[in-house]
Design goal:
The termini are far apart. Helix content is about 35%, strand content about 20%. The chain has about 375 residues and is α/β, with parallel strands linked by helices. The chain contains 13 helices and 15 strands.
Length: about 375
């Protein structure tokens, strides 16, 4: 019994000594922690007072930076891609507030890259966020998406750039109001005809039109246009349009169907302001006769397929390439123009022949194949 008590006293004494030692160590550590906390406080205070530079910028500057994040207007961002302004609303509360208060971020959108489910919600939301700014709309009626485009029709007074791809041109009849801000119009129309053509109401600023359709499906103020592209349009539809484009500066043509024309000066089409003329290559050479009847005294840049120059009755025969050289000489002489650039596509005649025959033209290029995106080269 006594031995057991002695053993307990020894155990208690040892543990008490151990606890005392641990308490001494804790005290030392606490003093170290206190010292570290004292050293930490200035660093923490400085960190707490630090603001990220982007968060110190005025809201107006951040808004301007945001506008460089999205594609340059009038190019629209996709609704859900990284370039979408929606991404900016998902970073922090401040950025969301600034993005929602910047109408310029929301004034261009592409309805061709959106699901039918989102199409009923997002376009009205973006239109509301765009405030009263002019709009750039890329729309379609494919896959039941015309209702999404229809949401923008009440805002047509704000349309500045309109690009439509339609399977049913009769949907154009939904556009009846004036478009006082419209500057550029692009229409891709399926095979369905629209008769009679739909008149686009008051559009005094419209200056650039791209048609990719077989017949003119709308009536436009042709005389005020300075840029016109007609692709896949029937040959007989083009002359009546060109005769009305008295102020045209840039013209690109891709003609479908049989190219027929009368003969004589009464059938000539004078485009006195035209500086750039491009005939895009087609499957068959349907633009030959039309080319011969154009009179373009201000023309500077010309691109066409070499086969357009093979035509009887134009120019003197200069063997062995007199046909093409003579036709081109006749066109230049008839127009009285001074070309600065000539591009011949699908050429078989050596480039040196053209340069020798036309030394006054500074830039002459011949290509054995078609030249894509040539409009961008001349523009």
């Amino acid at each position: 019994m006594l031995a057991s008590l002695e053993s307990d006293r020894t155990f208690v004494a040892d543990k008490a000594a151990q606890i005392l030692e641990l308490e001494n160590q804790i005290a030392v550590l606490e003093r170290s922690i206190d010292a570290l906390r004292v050293a930490q406080k200035p660093a923490q205070d400085r960190l707490d007072s630090y603001k990220y530079p982007v968060l110190t910028l005025p809201n107006e500057i951040i808004s301007e930076i945001f506008q460089h994040h999205v594609p340059t207007y009038p190019e629209p961002p996709d609704f859900f891609e990284d370039s979408s302004p929606t991404k900016l609303t998902q970073i922090c509360r401040k950025w969301r507030q600034i993005a929602l208060a910047t109408p310029a971020l929301w004034r261009a959108f592409n309805l061709r890259c959106i699901s039918s489910e989102a199409a009923s919600e997002l376009p009205p939301l973006w239109l509301e966020r765009s405030g009263f700014l002019p709009l750039s709309i890329h729309g379609t009626d494919a896959d039941d998406l015309f209702p999404a485009f229809s949401a923008s029709i009440p805002h047509c007074a704000r349309w500045e750039h309109l690009d439509l791809a339609l399977n049913h041109p009769s949907n154009l009849k939904a556009i009846t109001a004036a478009m006082p801000l419209l500057r550029t119009l692009s229409l891709f129309i399926n095979l369905e005809r629209l008769s009679p053509p739909h008149p686009f109401q008051y559009a005094p600023l419209l200056h650039s039109v791209v048609f990719n359709c077989q017949t003119p499906c709308v009536i436009l103020p042709w005389s005020q246009l300075t840029s016109l592209t007609l692709r896949c349009m029937y040959a007989e539809e083009i002359p009546p349009i060109l005769r009305q484009t008295s102020n045209l500066v840039h013209c690109t043509l891709l003609v479908w169907g049989e190219d027929f024309f009368g003969s004589g000066p009464d059938y000539d089409i004078t485009l006195s302001c035209l500086k750039t003329l491009i005939f895009e290559p087609s499957v068959i050479d349907t633009s030959v006769v039309l080319f011969q009847h154009l009179v373009t005294p201000a023309l500077v840049c010309l691109e066409l397929r070499e086969s357009f120059l093979f035509s009887e009755g134009l120019g003197a025969a200069i063997a062995p390439h007199g046909g093409v050289v003579g036709s081109l000489e006749a066109f230049i002489s008839k127009s009285g123009c001074q070309l600065c650039e000539l591009r011949i596509t699908k050429a078989s005649v050596p480039q040196e022949i053209y340069r020798s025959a036309f030394p006054s033209i500074p830039v002459i290029n011949c290509f054995k194949a078609a030249v894509p995106n040539s409009v961008a080269v001349f523009a």
